[in-house]
Every structure is written in C-alpha cells, then in structure tokens.
C-alpha cells in the first residue's frame, strides 16, 4: 500500500486547522443592488466572537458586470447574480453573491410598422424591449394581442395573420409596459402575380433569377406587395429528392436534375414558373502523376514556381519536426526530385512562399529553441543551392504562422495577433514598414494573402478583412494599410481567404474554416479527421458583403486552396484534394449541385503515418495539380482534359 | 572454546547477514518514488516523470491544448499546495493564452481561464489560494506586461497587475504574502502584495548588479552633473550617510540628461529570467541571464547583497526546501550549477544531457534536483535527475520536444 507523503499536504492541513477558528463576516449578508448603484460592503474577520483588524479583500468573479474596489465598494454595471470571493489572511475564503436587480422595463419599441396590411398576407412584427438602464432585454417575455381577432390575429411569435379588413390595434406587452400600434388591414388588391425568369433550362448549380410583380384587377403593379418565394420539384432520379435553394429575392438554384416549379405568392394570389434542370456533368478523371516522399516527419505547406532557369521547382515546409524546408525539382511532375534543404532553429516551418520573380523564398519559424521565432529569407535563384540571406524576428518572436510575398514586401503574421509588412528591397536588411491589427477584444489572425494590392487576412471570429496595401481603392500602401471591407461568419473559424473574380462580374472571397472536432493525433501512426468547410462570400458590394454559398465534404475539413480559371483546388485534409467548378454565379451548396470535378486522396503505405492521408495544400502549376500531404510529402496529379459535351445545353 | 567461538562467530555472521538482509528489506520497503510534471512545449504534451532513486522514466504523456494543428506551447506548470490539482499555462492562443486546471493522477481537465499574452511561470499562494501567473508577452513591441491573478477554485481571472516588459519567473515568499517576478527586457524585480494585488516595490536589476561591482573609493564623483538629476524624490535626511536607492523614483529621472540616451524602452543587459525566494530567509535570488550571474537581494533593505558568477545563461532557479542549496540552470552553457547558499560557493557544475537547459524543480525532501533540457530541432526533451548528495546526474528521462516547465508533484513510499 502506498502512502503519499507530502509535506505540503501536512502544511495545508495544519494551516487549515489554525484557520478554523476564524471567519469572514459579510454585511449585508445578501447584498442587493440596482444597476448603476455603488454599495459599500462591510467585511471583517471574527475570532472567538471578537472582531479582528485583519483586512479582507473582495473580488468579483464578473468584473465587467460588478466591480469591487480595494475599499470594498461595489459598483453594479449590469443586472444578474454575481459570485464574490472574500479573502482574509488566516481566515481563508468565503464565497457570497450580490444580486443586481434587473431594471424595470421602460419601453417596448415596435419597429417598421407597416401603414397597411393587405388582408391575407402575413406580416412579422419587429420589436425591441428596453429597460431603465438603457439595455436591450432580449430575455424579456413579450405577449401580443389583437383588438379584433375577426380581422387579424397575432401569434406568440409576433406574426400577424389577417382574414378580414378594418382598423385594429396590436398590443405588445412586457412586464407592465405595453405599446400599441394601429394597423389598417385593407382589402387585398392583388389579383395576379406575374413571374419572370432569365431562362427555363439549366444545369444543377446554375442560378436562376425569378422576379415577381403583383398586379391588381386593372393590371397595375402593387409595389408594396409582400412576395414570398417557394419551390417544389420532381427529381429525375427516383431515389433522390428534388432539392435546391430559393432566396426571398427570387434567386433559385437546383441541386438535383429534374423539373422545378417556383411559386411567388402574396396571400392567395400566386405566380408559377417551371424550369428543367440537367446534371452539371463536370466530372473528370484525375490521376496521380508523381510523389516526392517525406516519411520521416510531417510536411506542411508548399509552393510551386518556375525558376529563373526555366525549370520548375517546389518548396515544402515541415511540421513539429527539425525546422527543415525542402526544395524539389518538379520539372517532370512524374519524377519529383529533392534537390536541397535548409534547416532553421524551429520545430515547425508552417508556411513557405516564393516571390513572383522566383528568386526569393520566405519561410516561417515556430518553436525556436530560444523562443525567438520569426521568418527566414532564402535566395532560391539556384534552388539546388538554396542559401539563407537573412533572418527577421523583430516583433515576430511570438511565432510566425503564415507569410506572403508581394511586390518586394513580406506580409508576416506575428504571434497570431497581427501582421507586419516588411520591405525586402534589400533582402539582407529586411525592414518593417507597416502593420495591420484589429481593435476588437481578443482579436486573432491566422493567415494573409495578397493580390492586386489588396491583403486578405483571415481572423477567426473577426472573419475576412480586405485591406488596401497598394491597390489604391482606399489610398492604402504597405506603410499605410487601409481597411476596405470585412465579413465575419458565425462559426468563428475563418482560417484562410482567397479572392476570386468571377467572369459573371461577381467578386467573391472564399473563406475557409479550420476545425478539428475529433482532435488531432500528431504522433507517428496517428490517423485523423478534420471538420469545417469553405464559405463563399459575395463582396461585389464592398459595403454589404454576403455569404452566398458553401463547399463542404462530410467528415473532412478544409485547409489551403488555390483558384485558377474558374476552378478551385482545395486540400480537405483526410479527404485529399477536391477540384471544384466555380463557373457562373455561386449560390447554395456547391457540392450538392454536382460542381465537384474530381478528387484524389494521397494514400501512402510508407507514409510517416501509413495510409493516413491528411492533405495540407494544393496548387495548380502548368496544368498539374501539386499538393502537400502531412504524412507523405509532395505529390502531383493531372486531370483529363474537358470532355466535349454530347448534348448541347441551352443557355439561359 | 574454538568451536564455541566459531559458532558464536557464525552466529554473529548470520546475525549480521540477517540484520543486513532485514535492513535491505526494510530499505527496499522504504524505497521512494518521486514524481514531477514536465511540459514539452513544442509537442503540446505534459509528461509525468517517475524517479525511484536510480531510474527516471516517463510514465505518462498527456496531450494538452485545443488547436491541434498549431503549437500552443505548454510553458508554465505548477502543482497546487494541497497536491490535488496541477495547473498549466498554454502560451499561445487566439492570441491570448490559457490557464488549465488538471486533477493530479487522473490528469483530466477540470477548468480553464483565458489569461494574457504568453502566460508563463506561475505559483499558488497557500495563504490567499490565488494563482499568480506572469504574462511573458514576447509578441511584438516591448511594452509592460502583466501578472494575472486567478482564483483557482472558480478559475476566474481576478486582476491583471501591470509590471515590466517580458515578465518571467513567478514565485511567492514563504509566507505566501509577497509575489516576486522579474521583467526580462526592462530588467526589473517586482514585489507584489499578494493580498492587495498591487506592486509594492521595484528594483532596477542592472543598477543592482552594478552596485555590487562598484568600488566607491575609486569613483570620481566630480564628473557627475547633479544639476541634471531629479533629486526631489530622494530621502535627504542629513543623518543618513548612505544613499537609500530604494526611495529613489527612477521613473522620474531624466536619463537623457545623464549622458546615456536609452532610446525608448530600456533593454536590460542583465536580462533577469527568474526569481526564487529563500524558504526561510528574507532574500530572493535573481538569475541574470544576460550577465551570467545570480543576484541575492535582501527583501528587507531591498538591496543586492551577494553576486554569484555563473556559467553562460543562468535561466531558472530552485532552492532546496531545507534552504541549503541553490540549483541554477545554465541555459546557454547546457549545464546546471549547484550552489551552497551558506558559503556562496558553487559545489558542482554539471553537464546536461543535451543543449538548452531550462527548468529546475527540487524534491520536497531536498534530495534530488530535476532539470529539464529542451534540446534543439526534433530532439526529444529530457529531464536530468541530479542527486544533491553526490552532486551527480543519476539518470535521464525522455519526453516530447522542448522540455521546459517542471513542477515537483509528490514523493511516494513503497
């Protein structure tokens, strides 16, 4: 039997024994406050019934809502019940609670009240509840009532359904505060719905633009008619249901081949149009061409480029290993040859990038032995003799996770917090000239990509930020980066961003998640799965970016990607490389629409973890797809050419 | 008689042998196992190292962190005063680091709280029950950082106390009422009132180091321009013959007028990386990583009293609970120094098993020092176990990459 001998435990026990006779007293015992109030709390120690001079400290566990200063004065900022810790030397600790009352509700504000409702058309009431402290009270229970239910009723969710006509009063009440609005329910003038569309045949994934016009008996347009769009369909495949997405602006996309009927309605009036959808039929064969094996450590990112000698080269990083980056000759993608390597003080070389002229390589460093991480600039004019030019770690010692080179400047993340812009006109003497950092609480950054003078950074919960670093649209420059636009999506997992100018005139930025819902076994032999997907954001209107589509592979997760000629090449970790047709307008679930052209998974029985594909990034270069895999190194593949269409598809 | 003697002798031999055997049995029955928790900063693992007096072995690797594809960097580690929980600071976050609370033995996570940038070393006061963790913040510009104060029962950050640039080393006085840390870049020692959570005193360690080197008899004071110094904060008590630097407010001095332009934030040459209070005396020991020395600071007078010249890069310090030894990791030299605190002499300077010596933890019985050695590149992290009686490395255990933070957990008797 083991006996744990711990001096510390004994000391603690003795200490506890010696403290047992003392007690902290709080007065009032159960403090109650109002928002905005200050309250002096009495706290003291008693021993054997005698009040002691021992000082007591009080600490609120929610400082932003309830703050207690060193004079034991509590200030209430928000309502709720808050835990407070009382500490006194020799008397241990006591926990108690302070209640800050919810302020009384002062206003139920009904917003955007329609002047009139057309009988039979449902209308949702928008409202906001405010309290005395000026706080919005989403928690408040609100009840609704109609003054005449023979004309209209209102359900518990605030939706008005009218069946008659006449003037009614709608009342919304929270606590003892109510507000009423007068609504005139008028006879519905809408007799017909005229529905137009820009085509009646197409493929899955094609976006149709339905537009409805409500007309009265005389054929005049009822401009304020509330139109609702919906669809039904019959799939060409009896084992699959017709599915798609319709938005309330009338845009529709089908996922399955079949016939779809779109309905635009306003009350009992409705307009219908049907479209015929065929399979998108973009699938192409893909074949593995070559591999440059790395099976003694994990491989990270890659970059492929044409060298100054006209041959083609690749650089790959390594992860959780010995700080090496490898250089490859990939001129013959079927025969990938390792030609050189550099080793830096790091455990992870997460990112590798090459300048547009093919002469400079920059690699990131994490896990340095002296914790002074940063980046390393390498001369790759002769990639078989890659030479380190300089190291840069000023303001970078927290770790550089990703980098980019654009027009003689390196964009380098620092400590997951911001990115610095470093001039490398003289690569021996890199010099930071600017930085970009958000001002949101707890902000963080994961990646940055630069194209046409615009930096696209990926900022987890703060989403995608577009920053002018020389484009001119906002007067920015490398030394004066100026934000243009941003978009954040709810899952807060924005890890990569890539701009895509569609031939349709739309300007998209594709934001990728990085999520590991099943954890990650980083050891040799570990087999892993990832999560997360690609979000397609329409940035055509920079002031109002909108998420319009997604690409998702079940039980796998997105990582790094590349877009060229309307085709997306994306690494999906355990699902390998996926090749996706981005042509035309994008809306809805791209994979469900049959936009996936091809996929290839790099299985390697001799990998660092055998048969455990975990693809990191993909890049198209001179017709070949190159991709790096965490467990097996660098690969190349090639898709068969586009096959001629046997049947001409009628364009919209 | 001879026969009797022989029998007696034989009996004696047998008795001796029996006694020895019993002693051996008794000794083996009292064999002790020592356990330490160690972080592998570039592996995102914490390992449990067991040492039985002869052999050190890694008995458990505990994966830590939540961002699997990135190195989150488990850095600081400490075991709570009652031994029930251990606490781990994860250096990298988004961007703030996180403090994790684990149950000892089962090593399950029971609580987390977000702290500042690169939370590092920490300790819990047995008196206040609060955990004090420095936010090392080596990200970006060198600005003053903080010490986070955490209520570990509820895992709530109660306060962030601003100290200096790149604070490191976080240790409490024996009475648990004073917290000490150093600021590596600004070269300061901070004493925090652990109860009122306020900085009580600061000490310029570069100046403190120089003070011990000064031979005042050879100084030419005639070259000093006192008119450019701000003496207003000095205690000019005429009865005092000795200048009391502790009462000088260095922050109010205009260093630019003193002929040594600091060029913004001071970059300490002393580069303090650790501070350890003595278990019974009113002194603390500060590692001067940049100047290969350890300073002894008297916490009553707030003045340096002794200087220990070390090998290159003294980094972490631990003092034996019996107050006899100071064990210092020499990070740059890849060695460990063992000092006799009474005589001020270095008793041994031992080679570590590989490069980059990091942390030190001494067993509660003052018998063994456990020293982490990071290694470089993809080398495994290591823990060298030093017998403080023989002053030799007894054994080495391996763990994941970049072995760093170390905390003594317990000693078991079998």
How is this structure best summarized?
The complex is a heterodimer of chains A (652) and B (414). Chain A is flat and about 80 Å long.
In words, what does this structure look like?
The complex is a heterodimer of chains A (652) and B (414). Residues 1-20 of chain A have low confidence and may be disordered. In chain A, the strands form 16 sheets. A five-stranded mixed beta sheet of chain A has the order 47-48-49-50-54, with no helix packed on it. Chain A folds into four domains: 12-101, Immunoglobulin-like (Sandwich), CATH 2.60.40; 105-186, Immunoglobulin-like (Sandwich); 192-278, Immunoglobulin-like, CATH 2.60.40.1080; 286-639, Methylamine Dehydrogenase, Chain H, CATH 2.130.10.10. With 652 residues, chain A is an all-beta fold. Chain A is built from one helix and 58 strands. The longest helix of chain A is centred in the first third of the chain and has 13 residues, at 7-19. The relative contact order of chain A is 0.08. Chain B has 414 residues and is mainly β. In chain B, 9% of the residues lie in helices and 47% in strands. Chain B has helices spanning 2-29, 205-213, and strands spanning 32-40, 45-51, 56-63, 74-79, 85-90, 98-103, 109-114, 119-124, 130-135, 144-151, 156-165, 167-172, 178-183, 188-193, 198-204, 272-277, 283-288, 293-298, 303-309, 314-319, 325-330, 335-340, 345-351, 357-362, 368-373, 380-387, 392-401, 403-413. In chain B, the strands form seven sheets. A four-stranded antiparallel beta sheet of chain B has the order 3-2-1-28, with no helix packed on it. Chain B has a four-stranded antiparallel beta sheet with strand order 4-5-6-7, with no helix packed on it. Chain B is globular, with a radius of gyration of 24 Å. The two termini of chain B are 46 Å apart. The relative contact order of chain B is 0.13. Mean pLDDT of chain B is 85; it is low at 1-28 and 229-263. Chains A and B meet through β1, α1 and β10 of A and β11 and β28 of B. β1 (3-5) of chain A pairs antiparallel with β28 of chain B.
């Amino acid at each position: 039997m083991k006996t744990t001998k711990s001096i510390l435990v004994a000391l603690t026990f003795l200490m506890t024994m010696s403290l047992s006779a003392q007690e902290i007293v709080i007065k009032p015992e159960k403090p109650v406050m109002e928002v905005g109030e200050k309250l002096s709390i009495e706290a003291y120690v008693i021993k054997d019934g005698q009040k002691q001079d021992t000082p007591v400290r009080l600490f609120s566990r929610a400082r932003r809502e309830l703050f207690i200063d060193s004079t034991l004065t509590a200030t209430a900022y928000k309502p709720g019940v808050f835990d407070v810790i009382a500490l006194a030397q020799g008397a241990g600790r006591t926990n108690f609670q302070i209640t800050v009352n919810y302020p009384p509700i002062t206003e139920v504000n009904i917003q955007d009240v329609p002047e009139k409702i057309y009988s039979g058309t449902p209308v949702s009431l928008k409202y906001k509840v405010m309290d005395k402290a000026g706080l919005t009270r989403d928690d408040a229970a609100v009840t609704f009532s109609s003054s005449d239910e023979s004309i209209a009723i209102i359900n518990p969710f605030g939706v008005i359904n009218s069946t008659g006509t006449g003037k009614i009063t709608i009342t919304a009440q929270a606590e003892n505060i109510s507000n009423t609005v007068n609504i005139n329910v008028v006879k519905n003038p809408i007799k017909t719905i005229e529905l137009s569309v820009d085509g009646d045949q197409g493929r899955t994934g094609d976006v149709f633009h339905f537009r409805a016009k409500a007309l009265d008996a005389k054929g005049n347009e009822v401009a304020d008619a509330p139109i609702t769009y919906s669809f039904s369909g019959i799939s060409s495949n009896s084992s699959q249901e017709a599915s798609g997405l319709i938005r309330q602006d009338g845009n529709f996309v089908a996922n399955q081949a079949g016939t779809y009927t779109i309905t635009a309605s306003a009350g009992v009036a409705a307009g219908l149009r049907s479209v015929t959808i065929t399979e998108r039929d973009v699938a192409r064969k893909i074949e593995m061409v070559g591999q440059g094996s790395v099976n003694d450590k994990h491989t990270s990112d890659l970059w492929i480029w044409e060298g100054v000698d006209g041959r083609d080269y690749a650089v790959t990083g390594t992860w959780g290993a010995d700080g090496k980056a490898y250089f490859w000759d990939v001129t013959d993608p079927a025969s990938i040859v390792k030609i050189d390597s550099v080793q830096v003080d790091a455990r992870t070389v997460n990112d590798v990038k090459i300048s547009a002229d093919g002469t400079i390589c920059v690699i990131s460093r994490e896990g340095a032995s002296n914790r002074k991480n940063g980046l390393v600039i390498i001369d790759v004019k002769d990639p078989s003799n890659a030479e380190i030019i300089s190291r840069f770690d000023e303001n970078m010692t927290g770790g550089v996770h990703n980098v980019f080179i654009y027009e003689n400047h390196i964009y380098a993340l620092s400590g997951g917090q911001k990115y610095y812009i470093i001039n490398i006109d003289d690569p021996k003497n890199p010099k930071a000239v600017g930085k970009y950092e958000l001002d949101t609480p707890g902000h963080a950054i994961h990646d940055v990509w630069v194209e046409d003078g615009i930096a696209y950074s990926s900022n987890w919960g703060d989403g995608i930020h577009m920053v002018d670093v020389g484009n001119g649209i906002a007067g920015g420059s490398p030394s004066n980066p100026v934000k243009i636009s941003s978009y954040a999506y709810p899952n807060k997992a924005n890890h990569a961003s890539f701009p895509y100018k569609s031939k349709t005139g739309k300007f998209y930025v594709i934001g990728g998640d990085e999520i590991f819902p099943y954890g990650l076994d980083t050891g040799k032999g570990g087999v892993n799965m990832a999560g997360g997907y690609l979000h397609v954001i329409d940035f055509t209107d920079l002031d109002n970016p909108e998420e319009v589509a997604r690409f998702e592979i079940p039980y796998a997760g997105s990582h790094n990607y590349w877009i060229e000629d309307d085709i997306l090449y994306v690494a999906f970790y355990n699902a390998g490389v996926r090749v996706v047709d981005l042509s035309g307008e994008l809306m809805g679930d791209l994979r469900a629409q049959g936009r996936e052209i091809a996929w290839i998974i790099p299985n390697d029985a001799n990998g660092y973890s055998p048969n455990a594909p975990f693809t990191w990034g993909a890049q198209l270069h001179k017709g070949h797809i190159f991709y790096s895999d965490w467990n097996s190194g660098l690969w190349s593949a090639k898709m068969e050419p586009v096959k001629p269409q046997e049947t001409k598809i009628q364009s919209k | 008689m001879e026969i009797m003697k022989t029998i007696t002798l034989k009996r004696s031999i047998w008795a001796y042998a029996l006694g020895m055997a019993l002693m051996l049995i008794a000794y083996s029955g009292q064999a002790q196992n020592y356990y330490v928790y160690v972080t592998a900063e570039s592996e995102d693992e914490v390992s449990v190292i067991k040492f039985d007096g002869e052999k050190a072995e890694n008995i458990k690797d505990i994966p830590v962190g939540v961002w699997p594809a990135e190195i989150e960097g488990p850095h600081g580690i400490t075991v709570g005063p009652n031994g029930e929980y251990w606490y781990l600071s994860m250096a990298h976050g988004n961007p703030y680091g996180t403090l994790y609370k684990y149950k000892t033995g089962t090593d399950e996570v029971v609580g987390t709280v977000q702290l500042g940038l690169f939370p590092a070393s920490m300790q819990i006061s047995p008196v206040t029950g609060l955990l004090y963790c420095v936010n090392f913040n080596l990200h970006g510009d060198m600005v003053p950082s903080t010490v986070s104060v955490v209520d570990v029962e509820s895992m709530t950050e109660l306060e962030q106390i601003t100290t200096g640039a790149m604070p490191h080393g976080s240790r409490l006085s024996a009475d648990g009422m004073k917290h000490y840390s150093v600021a590596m870049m600004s070269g300061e020692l901070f004493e925090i009132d652990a109860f009122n959570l306020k900085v009580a005193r600061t000490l310029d360690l570069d100046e403190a180091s120089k003070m011990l080197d000064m031979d005042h008899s050879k100084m030419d004071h005639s070259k000093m321009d006192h008119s450019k110094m701000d003496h207003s904060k000095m205690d000019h008590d005429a009865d005092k013959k000795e200048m009391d630097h502790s009462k000088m407010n260095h922050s109010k001095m205009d260093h630019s007028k003193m002929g040594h332009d600091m060029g913004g934030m001071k970059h300490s040459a002393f580069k303090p990386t650790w501070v350890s209070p003595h278990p019974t005396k009113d002194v603390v020991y500060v590692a001067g990583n940049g100047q290969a020395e350890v300073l002894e600071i008297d916490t009553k007078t707030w003045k340096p009293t002794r200087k220990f010249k070390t090998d290159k890069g003294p980094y972490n310090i631990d003092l034996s609970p019996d107050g006899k030894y100071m064990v210092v990791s020499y990070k740059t030299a890849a060695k460990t120094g063992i000092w006799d605190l009474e005589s001020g002499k270095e008793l041994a300077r031992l080679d570590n098993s590989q490069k980059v010596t990091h942390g030190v933890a001494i067993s509660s019985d003052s018998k063994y020092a456990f020293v982490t050695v990071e290694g470089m590149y993809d080398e495994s992290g290591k823990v060298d176990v030093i017998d403080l009686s023989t002053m030799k490395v007894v054994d080495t255990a391996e763990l994941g990459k970049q072995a760093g933070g170390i905390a003594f957990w317990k000693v078991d008797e079998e």
